[in-house]
Amino acid sequence: MKLTGLLGGSFNPAHQGHRAISLAAMAALGLDDFWWLVSPGNPLKPAAGMAPFPARFASAVAAAKGSGIKVTGIERQLGTRYTVDTLRALVRRFPRRQFVWLMGADNLAQFHLWKDWQEIAATVPIAVATRPGYEEQARAATAMGWLRDHVLTADQAKGRTEWSLPALVLLNLPPDPTSSTAIRAADPDWHESDKYRLYAKGLRDGVTREPVT
């Protein structure tokens, strides 16, 4: 089994924080590779202020450059919008991969709002990266009450290909204060920059190899 980390999100835009936690999680868990799933649209986030998909994809390619992280919009091909549906489809499509879902502590705090969140936890292991200001909320999260007895350390999880699910791995990673919200606040038209227009030309999906349009 190949161990593959997954980080899903809007990437509106992607930034060094996404890269840092992904690479740190790869090292901490002994993952073979890592995929960023650029969402067609996050059901928990308003459509207003959401940059076009090609720009968000291009920002992810720029942020991942030279890291080996694969950027994919496979959810558009699968026709899925919710994480639970995406994971079901990925597990079926890639039976020789063990996926590990990575989220920030801020997402754990609202994980119980995700569609069929308990099924997500029963489908793949979940790794949670520390995020400044959210640790207390994460510890008190509704989902944590259900997952508390299934917590592993990074050492217990590293390189593991056989899991008893649900499984929650808490990763104490170096914090990075960078946020997409702050980037958009400083530059609401970030996606109009020549940088992302350049990256958007001739892009192909890192997993499906389909052209990105």
What does this structure look like?
Helix 2 (53-64) packs across helix 11 and helix 4 (83-93) packs parallel to helix 6 (117-123). Helices cover 39% and strands 16% of the residues. With 213 residues, it is an alpha/beta fold. The chain has a 7-stranded parallel beta sheet.
N-to-C series of helices and strands: EHEHEHHEHHEHHEHEHH
Spans of at least 5 consecutive residues with low confidence: none
Count of runs of 4 or more consecutive helical residues: 11
Radius of gyration: 16 Å
Instruction: Assess the beta-strand content as a share of residues.
Output: 15-25%
Judged by helices, strands and strand pairing, the structural class is: alpha/beta
Mean pLDDT: 91
Biggest β-sheet strands, sense, barrel: 7 strands, parallel
Q: Give, in spatial order, the strands making up the sheet with the most strands.
A: 3-2-1-4-5-7-6
**Termini separation (Å)?**
32 Å
The number of strands is 7
| Helical proportion, percent range | 25-40%
The global form is globular
